[in-house]
Amino acid sequence: MAFKSATERRTLRVRRAVKVAANGRARLSVHRSSKHIYAQVIDDLKGQTIASASSMEKTLREKSGANIAAAKEVGKLVAERAKAKGVKDVVFDRGRYIFHGRVKALAEAAREGGLNF
């Protein structure tokens, strides 16, 4: 059996719980790096990305991507794009990150933007 790091085990544990709770809903997945934050709405049944947004986009690039304000903008943007594609109900996948700071700000902005989770 291959050795997995603590972060890999935590990611798999959270992802397993998210997929059980999904019940056919799309998944709002978050990735956070030291300089940017990324979010995408994924349909796991079809294996397709429905909508995505990141702090690296031209409209958001002027600001720093590593702060809460940028995370809120990304959350609003991904919610708008998902609603435009007809997705309102999602399950939140925080990955290996704790629900705090930028990840929490993105989630709250997505909720304000009209996504239900």
Short description:
The protein has a single domain, classed as Nucleotidyltransferase, domain 5. Helix 2 runs parallel beside helix 3.
Q: Briefly, what CATH class?
A: Alpha Beta
Helical residues, percent: 25-40%
Computed Rg: 14 Å
Q: Per CATH, which architecture?
A: 2-Layer Sandwich
Mean of all residue-level pLDDT scores: 93
Strand content: 15-25%
Order of helices and strands: HEEEHEH
Biggest β-sheet strands, sense, barrel: 4 strands, mixed
The CATH topology corresponds to Nucleotidyltransferase, domain 5
Distance between the termini: 35 Å
Q: What is the tally of beta strands?
A: 4
How does the overall form come out from the CA principal axes? globular
Molecular structure report:
With 117 residues, the protein is α+β, with helices and mostly antiparallel strands. Helices cover 38% and strands 21% of the residues. The protein has three helices and four strands. A hairpin with a 4-residue loop joins strand 1 (26-32) and strand 2. Helix 2 (68-84) runs parallel beside helix 3 (102-112). It is globular and about 40 Å long. The protein starts with 5 loop residues before the first helix and ends in a 5-residue tail after the last helix. 32% of the residues are buried.
